[in-house]
Amino acid sequence: MTAIFALTTSLLWGLADFGGGLLTRRTPALTVVVVSQTVAAAVLGAVVVATGAWSAAGPRLWFAFAAGLVGPIALLAFYKALALGPMGVVSPLATLGVVVPVGVGLFLGERPGLLRLAGIAVAVAGVVLAGGPQLRGAPVERRTVLLTLVAALGFGTVFALIGEASTTVTGLYLSLFVQRLTNVAVGGAVLAASLRRGGSALPEGGFPYRSLPALAFVGLADVAANGTYATAAQHGPVTVAAVLASLYPVVTALAARGFLSERLRVVQAAGAGLALVGTVLLATG
């Protein structure tokens, strides 16, 4: 069950990243984040009311609140790094965030067997290669590397926090709702600050009403991925769930290949193959 939920997480996050990347070509990244998360918060609010999930409120919601604080900061750092540096450096480096939840799992006493350790190593190597690492070219600015590492640490921290935010289904609904409300508040505050400094919140044509379905998909896919990851972490080793859930760059690369006809580089194809081998080792270990 852990492998199924974690791989579903990768699929959802990979598609959300692909959709978000397309949207940010026409709409400011901050606006994409705020609008998509607002839609997700509205849907989750309706679910919380319909299921009576308010009754599951407890101290664990602080984990959801913390995840909501960290998530937008990590995402904005990632977008900024992509704007400043080559994707072939930023994308693979950002996947290093997986060491945070894996480290938490080891700290809590998880001891993967030899086969699973091999699977972790192979899968992580595959994810890094699937990002198409740039091994040659102009030096990358220190600021770009720093922003990417901040993003990686933030993504990994969200992994670890959301896995601790609930222990029941209704509690999961409520924790995801709290996380999304916090995302909107933090993202909205950053957007307001950007506008005061002369930044832009909308594309030239005004509010992107035609993009609302895509924005809704990005927000809902992201929140669904958080839910499936939390479920995976609760039903099996966090070390396995975190690594399998981190395969989303492979999904994003394959989506770009399928929908945009972008050609995969040899290193990316090799990375996707290694990620698949690592998945098999983790699922059977």
From TrEMBL:
Residues 3-130, 144-283 form the EamA domain. The keyword Transmembrane applies. It holds the Pfam family EamA. The chain crosses the membrane at residues 32-54, 61-82, 88-107, 114-132, 144-162, 237-260, 266-284. GO terms for cellular component: membrane. SUPFAM superfamilies: Multidrug resistance efflux transporter EmrE (SSF103481). This is EamA domain-containing protein. The keyword Transmembrane applies. Keywords: Membrane, Transmembrane, Transmembrane helix. It comes from Streptomyces malaysiense.
